[in-house]
Amino acid sequence: MGQILQFAINGLMSGAIYALIAVGLVSVFKATRVVNFAHGYLIMFGAYFYFTFAVLVPQAAWAPEWLQSWRPEWMLAMRADLPMFSPMAAVLDWLANLPRIVLGLIGALVCNALLGLLIERVLMRPLMGQSVFAMIMLTVGLISILSGAAQLIWTSDAEFVPSLAPNTPIRFELFGSMIFLFGADLANMVIALLIFGGIVLMVRYTKSGIAIRATAEDQSTAYSMGISVPRVFSRAWVLASTTGAVAGAILATRNGISPSLGLFGFSVLAIVLMGGLDSYLGVFVAAMVVGVLEALTQWQFGGEWAGIVPYVAVLLVILVRPYGLFGSKEIERI
Amino acid sequence: MITGNLKSSYAADEQVLDNRWKRGFLLACLAGLAAIAAFGNNYVILIACQMGIMLIAVTGVNVVIGYTGLMSLGHAAFVAIGAYAVVIFHNTAGAWLPDSVATVVAIPVAVAVSALIGVIVGLPSLRVKGLYLAVATLSANFIVIFLIEQDVFAPWTGGMNGINTPAPNLLGWEMDTRREQFVLIAALAVLSLLAAQNLFRTRVGRAFIAIRDRDYSAEILGISLYRYKLMSFAISAAYCGLAGALFAYFYARILPEQFELDLSLMLVAAIIVGGMGRTMGPVFGVIVIVMVPEVITVLFGAIAGGGAELAQIRAPIQEIAFGALIVGFLLFEPFGITHITDRALRALNRWPFARG
Fold it and tell me: Where are the domains of chain B?
């Protein structure tokens, strides 16, 4: 029983990250009707940008000392009194890394936003109004371009990257069983959920969110009501690439950076289809369910089986409910 | 409009190759292939074999994407099934069969097994289309490769480490050199292309095209979507199974990772580059998709003379070139190379009166 709970909580934590990635896919789909097969590779770029700004730049000769490791007097004084492995020491370690974490996040957000804009402007916009097939295949071509470019730019494999939050071990008791977590994982989950919630609220209540929904409803009507549809498109891509950057940074701290990070996007794609392409709620539910299922599979059958859980799940769901759990049925004119 | 193509009988109109230019082209191609088999050096033979194997698979993908309009990103799975079916057949049933017969039986078995799995993978196409189908087939690809890699099946498939493959033996003709295998591959490739050309003047092929153009209208016309969509998947999977069987015979060893998403994308890229829903599309597409990395390799060799550092950036550049091919053709020539050749031939046909 205790182990089920432990694995379920682990699953919820990775589910939150799935949800964070999925929100980018859903936003782009809602606004532009394009499903971005290369989203995983956008995330990989986010991870590499984070690595660049949080590890490579501070290591450079011209970078100031405090960027690499910030150690003011008071911190050293506090540090001296602490025993090894105390939670406070982990927090202080994190504080020392804080400048480069912030720089890394800002760099990743800005660079990825620019990348998203570039893709939208150069590749997607000329195809506006073309068939779904052409748009999807374009993003498929983008996969190769992005993964090749990443290998060209970052030849070295990424080493350790600083985690976004202090990595203190946390133990607590839940329903009579011990649960063991890492602080960074918990913080990642909170960040992911906050961003997810923020985006859902933004799409619901702000002006630009309403513009996105109007465009999703009917492009030409939105156009004639004075909404600049191309601007909605670029906003959606920026939204997707910035959430992707955060997700990339989180994934980089969890399992390191490698070109295989891009494959992650495909499992999230499966999750998105499972939840329903245009439903934030459905995608959230699907992400959490798949996260938990994956963790439970990992527990019962071993790590490699966890990898195909999203694909099996999406096949089963699609066969029963073709438009996902909460997706709206596509209505076609004949 | 094509001029000078007058028909005076139905029989003439119904031929597979309906004018003498096409027949001449086929003969020229056969002569070219014979010349390669006779005089090509090892490198040419190797590339030609790779092209032949891929051509068969791409022809299959063309049936399902180009003619039936069902988007599939998982056809590498069928190539894998064909390849592994041949190896497993040789390692199990092959023990009872004489060597000279085993190949002749193994290839049809591989094709049949692939077609059967194709029907199963095609099941989602009855419920969903477009993007959803693309993701469903993509998922099927991941699942098939995952199953092949499992330890449970390792006694038959070799698991992650791959498995050694037998050499083909065509009724006593031991084909253990690349050149001999090329004859087999080229013959089967030409036959598959002709079969594809033939398919689309039959009832079945026309039903596929009707489904592609508008599935609801096709259904109203009395075409059973259920039957023909599955048939389309079965036929294309059979082509891919044949390609997989030849793949297994051609290479000394097969690994599960050779049949992952990369191969699926390559197959789809080839028909985008070549031209969808055209018999010659796969031919052009495969030539480009196979040649571009080779040309890049040769260029790099010429520039760098094989420096280790440059060799390191060659693979990413090949990858970028592959993506750029897909993107470039989608943006600037969405109907592929066949559209370019169409324009050229039309201009030639009308010359000197009108161009374009």
Answer: 19-259
